[in-house]
Design goal:
- The complex is a heterodimer of chains A (252) and B (194).
- Chain A is of the alpha/beta class and 252 residues long.
- Helices cover 33% and strands 27% of the residues of chain A.
- In chain A, strands 5-4-6-7-3-8-9-10-11 form a nine-stranded mixed sheet, with helices on both faces. A two-stranded antiparallel sheet of chain A has the order 1-2.
- The termini of chain A are far apart.
- By secondary structure, chain B is of the alpha/beta class.
- Chain B has one domain: P-loop containing nucleotide triphosphate hydrolases (Rossmann fold).
- In chain B, helix 6 runs parallel beside helix 7.
- The radius of gyration of chain B is 15 Å and the shape is globular.
- The model of chain B has no long low-confidence stretch (mean pLDDT 93).
- Classes of the chains: A alpha/beta (252), B alpha/beta (194).
Chain lengths: 252, 194
Amino acid sequence: MLGAPSYERDRCVTGIRGLDEILRGGIPYGSAILVAGTCGSGKTTLGMEFLMNGARAGEACAHFSATEPSVKLLENVRQFSFFDMSAVDQGLINVFDMDVLFSWLGLDKSTFNLDDIDAMVKAITDIVNTIGVTRLVIDSVTSLCYKVPNEQLIRDFLFKLGKSLSTLGCTTLLIAEITSVGGTAHRSAFGVEEAIADGIIVLGDVERMGHLLRYLQVVKMRGTDHSRAKYALELTRSGVMLTPMLKWGVSD
Amino acid sequence: MIEFDAGIAEQLSQVTTTSSVQVRVGTSNSEMVLASVLQPLIQGFGMGGVYITASKTAPNVIEMMNTIGLDISPVHFIDCVSPGILGGTQNPYPNIGYVDSPIMLESMLLRSLHYLENSGSQQNFVILDSVNALSIYNEERILAEYLHTFINTCQNRQILSLIVNVPDQTPAGVLANMDLYCSDLIDRGQVVIN
């Protein structure tokens, strides 16, 4: 019989106001999502709010920080009323410094080979498996990939990581830094991350008469219908808020 | 003691939180009309609210209302004028938030919703003051689109919206759209004799 498909994948409800509506209910459970954005576009805040909402629902969450020390990250995020430090104290949000992890694995080197990548993937998935993490943020995957010397190894790394985490039922946000989000620009620094990810959420700026307005756009999301429109993003004390961007206010 | 416009209070007693009211003012009576709108909403109906000011700075509006004798401290202001003035955001009022510029239309809407979500008030209003000031910075088509979105968002969230304009100085296309989208009209606009 023809008609609407009756099967719906289970969703990881992000709890971010507007995003679940854009995703028709949330991120398909166990997906690895690339959150690619320019500097100051709200990537880290979005990632922390995603984790905090999971912690509030009793889920075990983890954050791997490669761009700034975890102490500094937590100090910055405490300005937001959505963030509750007790979630960290109670072990619902587990924050790891990638530098510490590298040191622990003996990976204090400038370039990684295939064995190093396997060791890193194993370490991350072991932590996820041991704690029972269902929401993970890696901030940023770009910083990790700078140590990987070629596209093939980056592809291997991300594919293995995504597959392992998906098998464990962990929904992952891979935060990526990009310098431009123009119409034809790559949505990742190395050009391979976007092909591996189950979904791509782009954060950037629209310039309007010299002012920068933040926006969010879901470009790809396997396993669900979703809006592909641009949404104006506002960082409030309560976290991220989204509303459809005015059509006459988008220049490109 | 200044007398408020009782006709406005009477009209406002008929609207609901899904109403959108076009408030037409003249260039010489706007302060009294706005005070007559705010007084019943705050003191009569006990509503919480947001006042988006693009015409004057929020401290200017607060001081003007205080002079009239209206305590406006329950209202949260979103001020998109003061950030454009050197030192404009330095003032003693805690109930003011800022948006960088009147062109950041989506930010005004999101910040209004954000405040109202956290206000704890059961019944809320948003005043947009004014379409004329926004039209200085925004093209007619984006302004018309914004008012369409703004009014429908407020209706959807059961927030009473009040859109202030000086009719004979409002772009014709924008005015026509407001006539279409708004459910009610408080008309205290000037009579223009050509």
